[in-house]
Design a protein that fits this description.
alpha+beta; 5-stranded mixed beta sheet; single chain; binds tetrahydrodeoxyuridine; Cytidine Deaminase, domain 2; 4 helices
Length: about 140
């Protein structure tokens, strides 16, 4: 078996698939306070996809971002290694993941195999970066 050396390659097909999944999740966003729905889709190193949307709360600080909800779903299913993540917002420009989400992405993506981040605007414009681009010199305890 070659599974130990198996590496996914980031392709346009994967980008499109993740963007579609993130858009579907965005449709379920609970964002009555900001009116800023966000959807995220994580692809794990094994190729599985998990999605999340932002879930707001009347006590604003309890809001959880779409990215962190997608990552929580992945972790709950036993997938701890992020290969790529697409984030779709309703902004007319490309909005990248917030700082808190960047740190959480780092938890499940090593610096030598950094997750690919696709940030997608409401008009479909997309920017592809890695988590190392978005959060250089990350905080690590281990
Ligand atoms: N939000 C996300 O879901 N992801 C981010 O990376 C940034 C912000 C959400 C939180 C809140 O529900 C709304 O967008 C406005 O900040």
């Amino acid at each position: 078996m070659m599974t130990e050396n198996y590496r996914l390659e980031f392709t346009q097909e994967i980008q499109d698939k993740l963007t579609t999944a993130a858009l579907e999740a965005q449709a379920n966003a609970y964002s009555p306070y900001s009116n800023f729905p966000v959807g995220a889709a994580v692809m794990t190193q094994e190729g599985s996809i998990f999605t999340g949307c932002n879930v707001e709360n009347a006590s604003y600080g309890l809001t959880v971002c779409a990215e962190r909800n997608a990552i929580a779903a992945s972790v709950a299913a036993g997938h701890l290694n992020i290969f790529a993540i697409a984030v779709v917002t309703s902004a007319p420009f490309v909005a990248r993941p917030c700082g808190a989400c960047r740190q959480v992405i780092c938890e499940f993506s090593s610096e030598d195999r950094p997750a690919t981040i696709v940030s997608v605007a409401s008009n479909g414009d997309a920017v592809v970066q890695t988590i190392n681009d978005l959060l250089p010199d990350r905080f690590n305890l281990l």
